[in-house]
């Protein structure tokens, strides 16, 4: 991924964002959104990637919703802060294929792992565009108490 984040994600130009970690190949955006920094999550049969065993090995929005469902997330109608819940946003490309996931922070902003690159804190729409597409679904689960 380009080191020029604003070149790759032009909506970051008009928003506030911050780089929050160095690059690492240990985990990807799906794992980061799921709270896992030990594995790479993606539906690749017979590969190095992790995918929940009870979820179809498919690159579909439904499969990604089910993957997050396996750890307690359910679909919800908005990306607003919801007291007592954490949220994840799933991005899809123009064909509806999942491309990215971001996790909402308690301050209402979002955190993302950019492929094998860095983690950033950003506004939800800061990553929409050619690379990741648009937000197609927001999910939520109660915070662990």
What key phrases describe this protein's structure?
13% helix, 3 helices, alpha+beta, 145 residues, globular, 27% strand
Summarize the structure.
The protein has three helices and seven strands.
Topology diagram in text:
Layout: H1 5-8, E1 18-21, H2 29-34, H3 61-69, E2 74-76, E3 85-92, E4 98-104, E5 110-113, E6 119-122, E7 134-142
Antiparallel strand pairs: 1-6, 2-7, 3-4, 3-7, 4-5, 5-6
In words, what does this structure look like?
By secondary structure, this protein is an alpha+beta fold. It is 13% helix and 27% strand. It has three helices and seven strands, in the order αβααββββββ. Strands 1-6-5-4-3-7-2 form a seven-stranded antiparallel sheet. A hairpin with a 5-residue loop joins strand 4 and strand 5 (110-113). It is globular, with a radius of gyration of 14 Å. The termini are far apart. The mean pLDDT is 92.
Topology as H/E string?
Answer: HEHHEEEEEE
The count of DSSP E runs of length 2 or more, i.e. the number of strands, is 7
Overall radius of gyration: 14 Å
Number of helices: 3
Which structural class matches the secondary elements? Answer: alpha+beta
Q: N-to-C terminal Cα separation, in Å?
A: 36 Å
Residues in helix, % = 10-25%
Give unreliable regions as ranges: none
Strand content: 25-35%
Shape: globular
Mean pLDDT across every amino acid position: 92
Lateral arrangement of strands in the main beta sheet? 1-6-5-4-3-7-2
């Amino acid at each position: 991924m380009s080191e020029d984040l604003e070149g790759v994600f032009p909506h970051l130009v008009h928003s506030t964002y911050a780089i929050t970690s160095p690059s690492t190949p240990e985990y990807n955006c799906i794992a980061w959104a799921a709270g896992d920094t030990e594995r790479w999550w993606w539906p690749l049969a017979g590969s190095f990637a992790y995918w929940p065993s009870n979820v179809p090995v498919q690159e579909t929005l439904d499969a990604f919703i089910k993957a997050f469902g396996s750890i307690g997330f359910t679909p919800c109608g908005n990306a607003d802060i919801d007291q007592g819940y954490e949220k994840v946003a799933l991005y899809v490309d123009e064909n509806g294929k999942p491309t990215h996931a971001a996790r909402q922070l308690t301050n209402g902003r979002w955190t993302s792992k950019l492929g094998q690159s860095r983690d950033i804190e950003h506004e939800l729409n800061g990553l929409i565009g050619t690379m990741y597409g648009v937000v197609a679904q927001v999910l939520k689960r109660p915070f662990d108490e």
